[in-house]
Amino acid sequence: MSDHRLPRELCQLFADGGKGRRLPVALPPGDVVWPDPGYTGQGEAPRPAFWMSDEQASGADWALLREWHPHSGLWPLLLDESAQPWAVGQVVPDDPRQIDHFTAEGFMAEVWEEWVAQMPADALGELEPYGAICPGPAPPGVLRADPEAVAAWLAGELAAKGMPLGLVAAGRGADALAVMGWQGALHHNEWMVPMAAVVRSWEDRFGARVVSVGFNTLDLSVAAPPVDPEHALHVAAEHWTFCPDNVVQGPGDLQGYAEQIIGGHAWSFWWD
Question: What whole-number distance in Å separates Cα of residue 38 and Cα of residue 113?
C-alpha cells in the first residue's frame, strides 16, 4: 500500500511540524480545529487542538488510521456531535507530559474521600461493600481478545450513529484526551489531566482503547473486562470515582452497576 505524507494542516498539530510522519491514504475533506481563546482564557493557542473530517466516518476508517498510528502519530477518534459541534473549539488543550504526575490510585483516593465526606450517612449503602473506605484500583483483567480488534469492533458499532473523524497528535488514546483539550467531565473534575491518568491505567490493566468522545461522553473498548462478580464490583468502584453519574443516575449502587459491566467489552461514560 502506498503512503502519503501528512498534509500541511495536519503538520500544524505537531510541535516538530510532523516531520517524517505519514498516512496510508489521502484524508477526506476536513480541517483543523483551534481552541476558542474566549473559552480557554489563555489567548491564542500555539497550534490547533485536532483535525476533524467534514463527513461521517466508518468503523473501517477508524480502524485503518488506528493501525497506522505508529507511523502518523495521530490517534483517531469518532467525534460525537449530538450535544454540541466540535468546530466551535470549546476545548482546553494540555501538555500530555503533565499526566505523568498523576496516578489512578491517587485520583480514586482523592475523589472517594471528597465524595464520601459530602454524603449522608444513610447513602453509604450505595458503596457497599466498601462504604467509606476506598478500595483502591482493581487488579488487572485477563485479555479475552486482541485490544486492537476489540477497538475496531466498537468503532464499527459507534460509527453507525454517524460521526465525523477526529485526529489528535498524541502517543496514545488517553493522552489524546489531554492534547485535544476534551472537557467532557468538567462538571465532575475541573482538570482533565488526572482523568487521563486513570484512562492510561485502564489501557494498561484492561486493554482499554479510547474510541469516541462527545461533549460530555467517552467510549472505551475493553479487551480484558472483569468476568467475575467480585472483580466487577471492584472495577465499579473505580468507575464511580471517574464518572459518578454512571452509577448514581444508573442502577443507583455499585452492586447494580457491577452487574452491568461484567464481561462487557465497551465502557461508556456520561457526565450530567
Answer: 34
Q: What is the pLDDT of residues 216-247, one digit of tens each?
A: 999 999 999 999 999 999 999 999 999 999 99
Q: Please state at what angle helix 193-206 crosses helix 104-118, rounded to 10 degrees.
A: 120
Considering the entire predicted model, what is its pTM?
A: 0.96
Residues in the chain: 272
Cβ neighbors of 28 (< 8 A, separation 6 or more) are 53, 54, 55, 57, 165
Helical residues (DSSP H) of the chain, grouped into ranges: 8-11, 37-40, 59-67, 69-72, 104-118, 147-159, 173-180, 193-206, 229-242, 244-248, 254-261
Cβ partners under 8 Å of residue 113, min gap 6: 134
Closest-CA residue to 215 (of 34, 84, 32, 33): 84
pLDDT digits (tens, 9 = 90+) for 252-268: 999 999 999 999 999 99
Q: Which residues pair with 208 in a beta bridge?
A: 222
